[in-house]
Design brief:
six-stranded antiparallel sheet; 4 helices; alpha+beta; globular; about 30% helix; HIT family, subunit A
Length: about 150
């Protein structure tokens, strides 16, 4: 389930970013979420949206997290637009499903342009990926099952 990490936690790199313990450039931030560029970008524009409170992964999400997931999607879309993503109908917004998450902290990938994905990018983030679940898929599962399958 969701757990909060103490301000002095040194284990989670995304908690360190959320707690301003790194020099990562924050593109957008509010009380619950923040957005920054992925250090290992797999797209022309590859941003991450994370929760300021530690949540392990999309598998830890429950129905009460629906507003958080909706806001993560909105921030991802807004950040792509603000950073000149171009065609906002050609984007991917989603999460890697454990054990395929590189960092055990909930993070949304906001990627553009989706139409120019390489074969490798398709395997990791494409519509047929078994590793990647879109915001819409997460919301559907939370609304119908109350959790992520």
């Amino acid at each position: 389930m969701a757990t909060q990490i103490d301000d002095d936690d040194d284990e989670c790199p995304f908690c360190q970013i959320a707690n301003n313990q790194t020099d990562t450039e924050i593109l957008m931030r509010d009380d619950e979420l923040l957005c920054f560029r992925d250090a290992k970008a797999d797209a022309g524009l590859h941003l991450l949206v994370i929760t300021c409170t530690h949540i392990d992964s999309c598998k830890a999400l429950r129905a009460q997290h629906i507003p958080t997931v909706e806001r993560m999607g909105e921030m991802g879309r807004d950040a792509l637009e603000k950073n000149k993503a171009g065609d906002l109908t050609d984007i991917r917004l989603g999460f890697h499903v454990p054990p395929f998450s590189s960092v055990p902290h909930l993070h949304l990938h906001a990627l553009s342009p989706a139409g120019e994905m390489s074969e490798g990018w398709q395997r990791r983030y494409g519509p047929r990926s078994h590793w990647f679940i879109t915001v819409d898929q997460v919301l559907t599962q939370l609304r119908t099952r109350g959790r992520i399958k």
